[in-house]
């Protein structure tokens, strides 16, 4: 997604970007694809998930961000392969730089997931370990007087 962001900005000065899973179809046209003041997780209620938000840090599915916010969080991490965990990493990046994850009401932020063969998600232990890595990097950064651990593997990873 980082390369798409970089290449798109070469074509035009976009004010915001929507990172959208291709298998999600919006059910309600009141869920506005506009340019939000804060990062907006738009896919709050997905039919395959019983139209419930699985956890507060979830930003997967459809995420709408201003260009400067995506740059501020250093984009998506390039350290994840396969399906899962990269969205959790993004949520932590958003919160770490002092931005707030906003959401439209679940009555309008509804999506249908197109039928398809799903890939196996990342092991839950990877997600648990990931959360602990974030805590450790923040502690180490705090002790060293800097916060650099979260920069790994994003837009600036060359």
From TrEMBL:
InterPro entries xrefs: Galactosyl_T, Galactosyl_T_C, Galactosyl_T_N, Nucleotide-diphossugar_trans
Positions of transmembrane segments: 129-152
Keyword tags: Glycoprotein, Glycosyltransferase, Membrane, Signal-anchor, Transferase, Transmembrane, Transmembrane helix
Statement: the UniProt record of this protein carries the keyword Ribosomal protein: no
Organism: Paralvinella palmiformis
Domain named Galactosyltransferase N-terminal: residues: 1-36
Main location group: membrane
Name of protein: Beta-1,4-N-acetylgalactosaminyltransferase bre-4
Pathway named in the protein's UniProt entry: Protein modification; protein glycosylation
Gene3D superfamilies per record: Spore Coat Polysaccharide Biosynthesis Protein SpsA, Chain A
Protein's cellular compartments: Membrane
Galactosyltransferase C-terminal domain segment(s): 40-117
GO BP annotation list: carbohydrate metabolic process; glycosphingolipid biosynthetic process
GO cellular component terms given for this protein: Golgi apparatus; membrane
Source species, domain of life: Eukaryota
Record keyword Glycoprotein present: yes
Membrane association type: Single-pass type II membrane protein
Family, per entry: Belongs to the glycosyltransferase 7 family.
A molecular-function term among this protein's GO annotations: N-acetyl-beta-glucosaminyl-derivative 4-beta-N-acetylgalactosaminyltransferase activity
